[in-house]
Amino acid sequence: MAEITPLNAEALAGLRDGFEASAANRMAMNAVTAAGVTKVARNYDRARLLQRRFSTVIDNGDATHQDRSGRCWLFSSLNVARFVAKKNLGLKEFEFSQNYAMYYDKLERVNYFLKDVAALIAAGEPADSRLMQHLLQDVMGDGGQWTMAMNVYKKYGAVPKDLFPETESSKNTGEMNTQLRHMLHTAVARMYAKGADIDQIIAEATAAGHRILTIHLGEPPVSFDWEWTDKDGVFHRDGEITPQEFWKKYVGSADLESYVCLVDDPRAEHPKGRKIAIEHLGNVAGGDATEYLNVPNQLMKDCVKQILVEEGIPVWFGADCHPFMDRENGAWATDLFEYGKLYDFDFSLDKEERVRFADSAMNHAMAFAGVDVAEDGSTRRWRVENSWGTKIADKGYFTMGDDWFTEYVYEVAVPKALLPAEYQAALEEPAISLPAWDPMGALA
Fold first, then answer.
1. Section 153-169 average pLDDT
2. Per-residue confidence band for 195, with pLDDT thresholds at 50, 70 and 90
């Protein structure tokens, strides 16, 4: 190993002298220490010129709030579904139970993880391998994907939020996840120690996972009486209905389960027009595989625009939400903050470099709920339904510059019929299989 040279006193003195020699550095330090970097680096002109007007707006009611949890992918997929349900029910406001969806997602993940690890152990996977250590570290987070959400809804349906409301642990998942993770780590250690007893270990761990989830989240309904008063004041009664029947009756018309996921993987070795799959990524055993079709970013924009303008339904997407985000005012644009000028450093990386060198990956899911289209058909900005409550942005709705979509949106879920024929044909071809730790496997 090459020797790592120390930062010596002479070099440190040079750094200090260089900093002191610039009046701009002193002014930057004074401003940032007093006001914080986001206020100092914020591009005033860009912020004031990023309008909140759109040629197409979809009204989906009050923004939801995921609180201190990573359930954005469930909130955003259910926000798409609730738009459909509201139309079918004749309601102005409606919300699905995100707690119900999380309960069954995590229960299924307990089973998926235990069976996956058992198969790896049987195949001789060492406990200290990169794969096993990745799976152990990554287990029982809150994040997920569109396909994983659809797997839950297809198997378990959905219920109105007031019939299975939030709990302390659904709003703040950290402690529950810690206990689930500890239980699963214990089970894996026992699998390695007592290989002959793996089936019994899995059964006991699955039962423990069910107990932990039910203690923290409550016991979800298997059926319920459904009755409501629509926006015109007319009372309706459906009688007893199961969550699966509720989903099919009030959301099934949109056929969300048949949507395909388009991804913009910018790395040159992963060609456009090919499917991508991530090894060991899933939640419901026997459900649809988590796969994406790698396409140009412009095709993603075209599909989203068509759905919003022609079909009038929100569109689920995944992005790296942190860069150039004004959370309080609800805005994204690639020049919204001038960090390079503040620090006197060239931060320029293209999208491929950011993915390749761990500077960017999908970490948040939301829904497009509007777009501004110029006279020439190009998109100018996007309206975004977030799940961070109504006290920020435009009552919870954000504005995204079209330039930011290009650089930081990675995935959208759209109907297969929108794709050109060659891309539809590509969906029938085998996927390129990427390792579990690949950045395209990052979860929203």
1. 98
2. confident
> 182 catalytic, yes or no?
no
Long-range own/partner contacts, residues 372-379 (CB < 8 A, 24 or more apart): 372/51, 372/53, 372/54, 372/55, 372/56, 373/55, 373/56, 373/305, 373/309, 378/402, 379/301, 379/305, 379/405
> In one letter, which amino acid is 325?
M
pLDDT category of residue 1 using cuts at 50, 70 and 90: confident
Which residue among the candidates 60, 79, 294, 386 is catalytic per the annotation?
386
Asked about 321 being catalytic, the answer comes back as: no
273 vs 259: CA distance, rounded Å: 17
Tens digit of each residue's pLDDT (9 = 90 or more) over 351-389: 999 999 999 999 999 999 999 999 999 999 999 999 999
Contacts of 212 (CB under 8 A, 6+ apart): 176, 179, 180, 183
Strand partners, 412: 262, 317
- Active-site annotation holder among 72, 261, 303, 321: 72
Query: Residue 400 forms beta bridges with which residues?
Result: 332, 382
Residue 90 gets the label, from left (phi > 0), alpha (psi -120 to 50) or beta, of left
Is 72 an annotated catalytic residue?
A: yes
